[in-house]
Amino acid sequence: MADTDEKAFAELQPHLEYQSATMARNLSATRMAAGAGFFGARDSEINARFQNIVAERRAGLEGQIELGQIFCGGPDTVAAQLQRLHDEVGAGVVNLIFQIGSLPHDRTIRSLELFAREVLPRVHEL
Q1: How many folded domains does the chain comprise?
Q2: CA nearest 72: which of 23, 5, 122?
Q3: Per-residue tens of pLDDT for the chain, all 126 residues
Q4: Which domain holds residue 92?
Q5: Is the pTM of this model over 0.85?
Q6: Are 51 and 31 in contact (CB under 8 A)?
């Protein structure tokens, strides 16, 4: 998160490489978890999605946001992304990771502060 969508995208883009490498290492575990129903009912669409997760990662930042894999933007945008997640899959609890790769500590802290002050109050009741 950042004050604006543009700033958030610009700050995150260089650090997505680390995330992609980590995801590739964890892909087997993710596939097994999906097949076991960890992400919801044993659903062929969900399982197919996790089988193709490496290809989805290549969709770029905007594509990953569309797929619900990353929340990124200013406070209004991130709140809307979380609302969409709730509306589409019924998520009431979301495990968020604010540290991505080599993102500097001060940017991570700023993101957490923005989320706590600007977004959390809007999505608290979801």
Answers
A1: 1
A2: 5
A3: 999 999 999 988 877 767 666 766 666 676 677 667 776 666 667 666 666 665 555 667 888 888 888 899 999 999 999 999 999 988 878 888 887 667 788 888 999 999 999 999 999 888
A4: 5-123
A5: no
A6: yes
Residue spans of alpha helices (H) in 39-74: 44-51, 53-57, 60-66
Both tokens of 26, joined, read 């964890």
**What does residue 67 show for φ and ψ, rounded to 5 degrees?**
-75, -5
Alpha helices, DSSP H, located in 1-126:
5-12, 16-35, 44-51, 53-57, 60-66, 75-89, 105-114, 120-123
Comparing C-alpha atoms, which of 86, 95, 99, 79 is closest to residue 19? 99
**Pair 43, 56: CB distance under 8 Å:** no
